[in-house]
From TrEMBL:
Domain RNA polymerase sigma-70 region, residue spans: 30-95
GO function term, MF aspect, one: sigma factor activity
Name of this chain's protein: RNA polymerase sigma-70 factor (ECF subfamily)
Keywords tagged on the record: DNA-binding, Sigma factor, Transcription, Transcription regulation
Homology family: Belongs to the sigma-70 factor family. ECF subfamily.
Top-level taxon: Bacteria
Species annotation: Thermoflavifilum aggregans
Start and end residues of each RNA polymerase sigma factor 70 region 4 type domain: 127-179
Pfam families: Sigma70_r2 (PF04542), Sigma70_r4_2 (PF08281)
Alphabetical GO biological process terms: DNA-templated transcription initiation
Length: 193
């Protein structure tokens, strides 16, 4: 890659150039632009510097793998979502490992079968919700997660994503409607199946 000024090139144009020539230097530019953001988020979620560094590396490797075939309209918002999802998966994995390695405690309350059924049902519902969220388009998914799961205001979401306030409201409203439709459809399939 010949020396060019990269500070005037948009993220989306850099992705386009990467898709054309597969030169990893383009991803390197995005890495330099956003490593602080990704590292900060990873540290916030994982609360361990070494884990955050590893996660940051894995996330940018994922960016390299997915940038070629994933439609990305707004890179920063997409990267935010990828980072958050990666960190949440790491936390879930760690919690599962911690539960398996916990010694039996005689003082712990015994979980009754009804409680286990209830927990299992809630887990199924959460999995269905996560599946449905994944099926939303990127702007709707990002806005829904930021508003409902992270409790950001419309204004904060607009600032974080670069969308207008009207777009944020629209993405949340349409995303909510699409989620409801998908979940009702899944529920009918479960009841009939």
């Amino acid at each position: 890659m010949k020396a060019i000024r990269t500070d005037t090139i948009s993220d989306e144009e850099i992705l386009q150039r990467y898709r054309q020539d597969h030169n990893q230097d383009w991803i390197g530019i995005l890495f330099e632009r956003y490593v602080h953001l990704v590292m900060g988020m990873c540290l916030k979620y994982l609360k361990n510097l070494e884990d955050a560094r590893d996660a940051t590396q894995q996330i940018f490797l994922k960016v390299m793998r997915e940038a070629d075939h994933t439609p990305i309209r707004y890179f920063k918002g997409w990267l935010y979502q990828v980072t958050k999802n990666y960190c949440l998966m790491q936390l879930r994995s760690k919690q599962a490992q911690d539960r398996l390695s916990e010694p039996e405690d005689e003082n712990q309350p015994v979980v009754m079968p009804e409680d286990e059924e209830y927990v299992q049902m809630k887990n199924v519902q959460l999995e269905l919700l996560e599946e449905a969220l994944q099926q939303l388009n990127t702007p709707q998914q990002t806005c829904i997660r930021l508003f409902y799961l992270e409790k950001h205001s419309y204004q904060e979401i607009a600032e974080m994503t670069g969308y207008t306030l009207m777009q944020v409201k629209s993405y949340i409203q349409n995303g909510k409607r699409n989620l409801r439709i998908m979940l009702e459809k899944k529920q009918k399939q479960l009841n009939n199946g």
